[in-house]
Amino acid sequence: MVRFVHDTAAILDAAARLLATQGPAGVTMSAVIRESGAPSGSVYHRFADRPSLLAALWNRAIEHLHRDAYVLLDQDDPVEAAAAIAGHIVRWCRSSPLDAQVLLAGAHHLAPQNWPAAAREERAAETARWDAAVRALVHSLRDATGLPTATILLTVVDLPYAAVRRYLTADRPIPAELDFQVPAMVRTLLNRLPSAEDAAAVRQDSQGLPPTAAT
């Protein structure tokens, strides 16, 4: 099927390009019309105003990221599930750089308080679904590894995004080797970091040593 330059996806792609190069302030209706080459009537037919456009831009990016992620969480081994999610985030950011730039900007910069009610509800529903899935993974990882929640979140959530952020902010390609390096790091950290009980024992042992030996 032939895709016309003024279909919904092409309009949102144009908005994402503007966001990546000019920031959220650059995503105006007139700028999107120019960037997409679409007739103004086509743009306004799909998006009544700028808040509607920004809402669609954010919700599309989140839906694309999460769509193939949920199935990766359905594994017996929570460490492997965490590694799979980490690899998915890296691969998705490489294959969907425009959507990745939207998420990098953050929803709070897209004025979600002005979005249409239906778009806000869509965002809230997906956020709740994803948060529930992540909480379930964290609980499984705590049972499997003994690690505290903060350590698990740092490893499973923050590490993959930190790995790709430097490339996204510099508009550079994400290296293919990160597909393997980031999941491997997640596995290593979850399997080798000391548990909360181990860390407490180390602190207790250190407190009993002479000052020169403990430093």
Automatic annotation (TrEMBL):
SUPFAM superfamilies: Homeodomain-like
Domain HTH tetR-type as annotated: residue spans: 5-65
Top-level taxon: Bacteria
Residue range(s) of DNA binding per entry: 28-47
Protein name: TetR/AcrR family transcriptional regulator
InterPro entries in the record: Homeodomain-like_sf, HTH-type_TetR-like_transc_reg, HTH_TetR
Lineage: Bacteria, Bacillati, Actinomycetota, Actinomycetes, Mycobacteriales
Record carries keyword DNA-binding: yes
Organism: Nocardia jiangxiensis
Keyword Chaperone included in the entry's annotation: no
One Pfam family cited in the UniProt record for this chain: TetR_N
Record key words, sorted: DNA-binding, Transcription, Transcription regulation
Gene3D superfamilies recorded: Tetracycline Repressor, domain 2
